[in-house]
User: Fold these one by one.
Assistant:
Number 1:
Amino acid sequence: MAHLICDFNPVDRITVDTIGPPGQRVFHLQASQGAQVITLVFEKEQARALAASLLQLLDHLETDHPEDQREVEAILSTQMSFLPPAESEFRIGQMGIGFDETSGYVVVIAYELTREEGQDIGVARFWATREQARALAQYSLEVVEAGRPSCPLCGEPMDPDGHFCPRGNGHGKMTEISDLDFRE
């Protein structure tokens, strides 16, 4: 059974950010409405999937519901910073998105991760403009990519002092970030 933690319709702000150094970052989804702020914990891959899903939805809607790119830029420059409190309400297990034709809002729904069957799960719903949703998606991708670089051989994240690459099959030195060529 689910119980509604919050239903911000509409949100004033919605953002993604991390706490901690690369390799130990904890990802958060945060939204506010008036003085109310809710922070939820989720995984890096959930942040990436949310961004990709939002971009796919928004690109599909673009023909009938064009966005104001100036507003997206304004949101990116003024509304993406993380607000206190950073204490999370719950850890996200599943997420869903949709579009409400009547209001013109994109809806992001987060369901609490539970470990026990039959336990009530928290649900948070965030109603955002298309511009807020696009800014959230773009910023989420920036936050995800701001972590540790990936090894060009195995794709695993690398620490600043390098890592033992399984593709090296036990031969050669550990790959170090300074050894890599990051040209586009």
Number 2:
Amino acid sequence: MRRLALTIGACAILAGCAMNDQDMGPPDAPAGSARADLRDANGRAMGEATAVQDGETIRVRIEGISMPPGGHGAHVHTVGSCAAPSFESAGPHWNPSGAMHGKDNPVGMHKGDLPNIAIGTDGRATLEYAIDYARIEGGGKPMLDADGAALVIHAAPDDYRTDPSGNSGARIACGVFVAG
């Protein structure tokens, strides 16, 4: 009987400790966010993108407005620059691991490869995507490094395999990510 009481007591103490650890949250939970205003080559607003750190995942959300209907490639690019009209200043896709392009590429994919955004006939769409094992700031090879990052929308859908850009055509909208 005494052994049963000790076992029950030990379990209660351990359960209490576990509950306290959960209440405190993860010990090294990274915080951070970034936002980008998307604009076309004429400076017209085309939406916004947000990135929020959630543990070891970056949660990206794109809200498109006034965009051409249809599918469009969407990518995080390595440089925080959106010089019109071509937005080539945004550089290539964010690719800290040196992978190939696209989720369908057997040796892919870049961290900056996002799913296509499907714009409705009203010019609007929302895309939400999780980039696993990535950081917005801090740590090794973050999205916002010394020269920043940008979100780029392309004219055509991404084919998810052609390196380096998914055959997604011209860059039609761009926004520089700003921390905070």
Number 3:
Amino acid sequence: MAATVTSEPIAALSGPVPPPPETRPRVLLVGTAFAAGASVMLFVGLLGVYLSLRTQAIADVGTWIPADVVMPLTQPNMMMLTLVLSVVTIQWAVVSIKNDDRPNTYLALGVSLLLAFSFIVELGYLYSLMKWNLAVTPPQATLVYVITGAHLAMLIAAMVFVILMGFRALAGSFTSRQHDGIAAAALYWHVMVAVYAIIWFAIFVTK
């Protein structure tokens, strides 16, 4: 007599498949993109004023930076290199959290912050080398300090962002499936570095 085959296992396999776990809406990433865009618009306006005045001054008197002003290029070059290295380390943090590699995530975030602090030290040294006659307060000095100072504020905001996301990562808020906080901090960091690249070329390279 042939054995009867039950259909219970087949019925169990063909049952309803549970839905995948819900993911959080990427509000932080979208908000960061808008904030980064607003920051870029600010610097576009500032650099537009700077370049316009420089073009007019060169057309009128043949020079923009006074002859007695020291504006070296070595320090801005090193600052640019420092930020380029930080782009690698901040992206290292994103890749690490995607792989649930928390030790490397924390290490990458820490190295990024260390490089940003090095940039601040280099900027302070650059300020000490630029001998502007502040008693006269020429527009060149005002614009250079406003633009670089605004970028310094953007850098500090990026550092605070990374620190906050690092604490959230320590608390277990981010995993390989949900890592929008680290990605948002990296997005703002990349934009900050891109802004300095434009400043570096427009102010320090072309002068």
